[in-house]
Amino acid sequence: MTARITAASAEPEGDRLPPVRFALEPHTWKEIAHLLANLPMALFGFVYVVTVVSTGAFLTLTVVGLPMLAAGLMGARLLGRFERARARVLLGVRVDEPSPLPLGGGRGGRELGVFGQMMLALKDPVGWRTILYDFIRLPWGILTFTLTLVSLFVLWPVLPFLARALTNVDRAMVRGLLSPSDELERRIAELESDRGVVVDTAAADLRRIERDLHDGAQARLVNLAMGLGLAKEKLLEGQADEQVAAMVDEAHGEVKLALQELRDLARGIHPAVLTDRGLDAALSSVASRCTVPVKVSADLPARPAAAIEGIAYFTVSELLQNISKHSGARNASVDVWRTEDRLLIQVWDDGRGGARLDGGTGMAGLADRLGAVDGLFVIDSPEGGPTTVTAELPWRERVEA
């Protein structure tokens, strides 16, 4: 009796300890929170999808059906972004954001009209995958919410294991349906980047042409006009024919130099020999101007598209300039051939080697230009040589005007 009274007095009614419970890690509580939020999110997503798809399909016979469906797919992208953020915060799933739709046409690109923007949204794989994700989530959201809620009060000891198993399925769904890891998404991102490279390269080429015209042929033509003007004045003043002849002779020299500079400039823009006779003749022409003896071999059954032909010509032209200026080579060769749907170029020299993409010889610019048209650029240049540069371009059939 005394013992019972002592025990009772040592543990008053209001100070009883709570029942013992299994402690859960913070990440487990995050998983539980994610599972409990599955039901409201699944309900919202399912209602949104059913409304968008059914309304858009029903109204496709009218002028508002397709625009409404396109707007719904763009809204689905926002739902996908929220789900990726939720998975990142609560489940630790790192999923990259898909590239945005280029509704404005992209940097340097042609502006899209309203119809073009609508068709781009309707063909958006990210929006359609998000629609599928939200459509199949309702039964899963009901199941996970119910099991988690019951486990909180009944199956507490197994709750951590159950939460991990259920959220692993969620992780797989997010990675499979909301991840931009498919090849199409990668290519969209690459092409967006490559288009910027093309625009920057074209702008640099225009600046170079403007500079060459201003500092070269234009300056010579100004001097020519001034010289002819002075010669005319001397003739009118009746001065000696020898002075006038000397001035005319000097003006004639300026004309020849200006014409040569204009020819060189035109050749730098697009050589006439490339247009008239093709890549083989054009490469032989540029090789003849190299300070190193160059052997040219071209095995092409037909001429590729003009754009590909031009890129191939300027790639070889710049590589041969590098050989002349930097390699110290005694011999070089250029080989061009077609393999299936690719145009291959190989430029070799027996110089000192050591060429790199970051070596300041324009190699990085060449690699960017080829990459912009889905090409490849590989340098094999050990110290001491030899150097082999391999370029690969897509073969596109030539369309005659």
Secondary-structure topology with pairs:
Layout: H1 2-10, H2 26-58, H3 65-91, H4 114-122, H5 125-153, H6 159-177, H7 183-236, H8 241-269, H9 272-277, H10 279-288, E1 294-299, H11 306-327, E2 332-339, E3 342-349, H12 363-372, E4 376-380, E5 387-394
Parallel strand pairs: 1-2
Antiparallel strand pairs: 2-3, 3-5, 4-5
Description:
A hairpin with a 6-residue loop joins strand 4 (376-380) and strand 5 (387-394). The chain contains twelve helices and five strands. With 401 residues, the protein is of the alpha+beta class. Helix 7 (183-236) runs antiparallel to helix 8 (241-269). It is elongated and about 115 Å long. The longest helix has 54 residues, at 183-236. The protein folds into three domains: 20-181, no CATH class; 196-269; 272-394, Heat Shock Protein 90.
Q: How do the SSEs run, as a string of H and E?
A: HHHHHHHHHHEHEEHEE
Please report the distance between the alpha carbons of the first and last residues.
114 Å
**Category from helices, strands and their pairing:** alpha+beta
Estimated share of beta-strand residues: 5-15%
Shape: elongated
Question: Which radius of gyration do the C-alpha atoms yield?
Answer: 36 Å
> Could you describe the largest sheet, including whether it forms a barrel?
5 strands, mixed
Instruction: Flag low-confidence runs.
Output: 1-22, 105-111
Relative helix content: 55-70%
Counted beta strands: 5
Number of helices: 12
The mean pLDDT is 77
